[in-house]
């Protein structure tokens, strides 16, 4: 029972960390700063790391769908952050 409480605490801490890093990433991206993109990548990777083990647990219905949505969104953020246009956005802004 103690191990379950420890794992639950780690998961709750991870969720809070991801939420805070996500807010930081959104603020950085809206301000057009490079660190916003970097924090978005870090947040997406952390989200993937914490979501993938949830796929191997037995549960029903919406929990499985929720986990898949989290994984799809994290992969989408990673893909969008690594597109050449997103890397050049700051450079184009500075040139204008």
Keywords:
mainly alpha, 84% helix, single chain, 96 residues, elongated
What does this structure look like?
- By secondary structure, this protein is an all-alpha fold.
- It has one domain.
- It has helices spanning 2-31, 34-51, 62-82, 84-95.
- Helix 1 packs antiparallel against helix 2 (34-51).
- It starts with a helix and ends with a helix.
- The mean pLDDT is 80.
Q: Helices, strands, pairings?
A:
Layout: H1 2-31, H2 34-51, H3 62-82, H4 84-95
Helix pairs in contact: 1-2, 2-3
Quick description:
By secondary structure, the protein is mainly alpha-helical. Helix content is 84%, strand content 0%.
Poorly predicted runs of 5 or more residues:
none
Whole-number mean pLDDT: 80
| Annotation field: number of helices | 4
Q: Which structural class matches the secondary elements?
A: mainly alpha
3D shape: elongated
Largest sheet: none
CA(first)-CA(last) distance: 60 Å
> Portion of residues in helices?
over 70%
In quaternary terms, these chains amount to single chain
Order of helical and strand elements: HHHH
